[in-house]
Amino acid sequence: MRDRMNVYFPPDLLKQIADLADRKKLSRSAIVEAAVTSFLSPDGEDRREAASG
Prior knowledge:
Blueprint lengths: L10 H14 L3 H13 L4 H8 L1
């Protein structure tokens, strides 16, 4: 089961997500899910540190 979550992105980021989804023939949700999964993975510490400041 999946829960729904509404998020807001700056237009330029949303365009990058949409473009990648089109190139990979995936949904935008799949792209965002993969990005969040990567961010939260144990080896994502550097990404979390960069995002926090």
